[in-house]
């Protein structure tokens, strides 16, 4: 568009120069009518040239403003391209992070499912509908427990044999539980009795040893019961 306006301006200037040259040539001629016609044509051409010049100037200004707008639009387009590239990079990064988060979520979901399955199996094995008495709950240890309970709940004949020490009777480790009473026998070693020692004389007794009690009287010391007379 600017190039077309420049060509129009150049053509208008050429026409103006031609009009001026024709006006000068007509004024020097002998005929008065020819000179009057040439003067009118000269004025008309001059007016057209002036209007063309003004139009050309306006077109030039419009072309310059268009060029400025084009440069600003190019700068805005470059900025938009840079922002678009940055947004694409961020979008790719977000997609990668989203993929990693999805994988992590799947792993956690699988782990949670395994934990729930194990927990459900444990609960069902303990208190669920598949429990079939103490044997199912205790497993192989239930037999040992039942054998131990049978040992504690032996019949009266076995208890008599154990207490009496008859032939073939062998007391078990819990034989004392089957005996009379519930007191466990004292298995501490016995110590020999020590002879009483005479008390030493003190200042309170005037240097004389304290008299021993008569043989007919009994004393109680250290929480021991008095012997029978």
Account of the 3D structure:
The chain is mostly helical and 229 residues long. Among the domains are: 2-122; 134-158, no CATH class. It is 66% helix and 0% strand. The chain has 6 helices and no strands. α1 packs antiparallel against α2 (32-127). The termini are far apart. The relative contact order is 0.04. The model is unreliable at 28-32 and 216-222 (pLDDT under 50).
User: Got a strand count?
Assistant: 0
Oligomeric composition of the shown chains:
single chain
Return the average pLDDT rounded to an integer.
Answer: 69
Rg over C-alpha atoms, rounded to the nearest angstrom: 66 Å
Distance between the termini: 150 Å
User: Secondary-structure element sequence?
Assistant: HHHHHH
**In percent terms, what proportion of residues is strand?**
under 5%
Tally of helical runs: 6
Please supply descriptive tags for the structure shown above.
229 residues; 0% strand; TATA element modulatory factor 1 TATA binding domain-containing protein; mainly alpha
């Amino acid at each position: 568009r600017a190039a077309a306006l420049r060509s129009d301006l150049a053509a208008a200037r050429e026409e103006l120069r031609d009009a001026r040259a024709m006006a000068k040539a007509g004024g020097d001629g002998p005929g008065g009518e020819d000179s009057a016609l040439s003067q009118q044509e000269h004025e008309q051409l001059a007016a057209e040239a002036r209007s063309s010049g003004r139009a050309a100037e306006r077109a030039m200004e419009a072309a310059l403003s268009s060029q400025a707008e084009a440069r600003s639009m190019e700068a805005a387009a470059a900025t938009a391209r840079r922002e678009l590239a940055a947004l694409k990079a961020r979008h790719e990064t977000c997609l990668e992070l989203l993929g990693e988060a999805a994988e992590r979520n799947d792993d956690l979901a699988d782990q949670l499912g395994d934990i729930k399955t194990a927990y459900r199996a444990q609960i069902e094995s303990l208190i669920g509908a598949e429990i079939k008495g103490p044997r199912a709950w205790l497993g192989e240890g239930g037999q040992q427990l039942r054998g131990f309970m049978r040992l504690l709940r032996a019949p009266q004949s076995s208890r008599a044999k154990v207490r009496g020490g008859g032939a073939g009777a062998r007391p078990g480790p819990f034989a004392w539980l089957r005996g009379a009473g519930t007191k466990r026998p004292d298995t501490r070693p016995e110590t020999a009795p020590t002879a009483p020692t005479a008390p030493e004389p003190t200042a309170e007794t005037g240097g004389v040893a304290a008299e021993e009690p008569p043989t007919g009287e009994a004393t109680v010391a250290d929480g021991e019961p008095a012997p029978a007379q």
